[in-house]
# Entry
Amino acid sequence: MKDNLTISTAQLFGIFPDQEAARKYLESRLWPTGPVCPVCKSGERITTRKGGYYRCNACREDFTVRTGTIFERSHVPLHKWLHAMYLLVTARKGISSLQLSKELSVTQKTAWFVLHRLREACGSELPALQGTVEIDETYIGG
# Structure
């Protein structure tokens, strides 16, 4: 993918056609040098298991790319999460849970859940434009 370019929905589906492709992409972004245990933070003694699971042999915990992220405890496939992210950031005026449910072929309740998790991940602190804001050469009003 090229940076600073918007891709089409068709291109997005080509890149992430299924859960497995999305999982591999997210793993490469989260763990560029290989899986790291979210519990003990160890990247050594990790055993690959089936279905995208890993086992840390240091602390004996199982984990996936979803562990400790907004995807945790969600049954929504990862490629639908990525599609939802795409729709959220490319929509000019935002997207409703009803519209998202139609786009992702999920229930409105699921779409609402996804939207709230994505908004939570964006954070609520807005450090810009707080306190005294100085603006030069600006006319406000008539």
The radius of gyration is 19 Å.
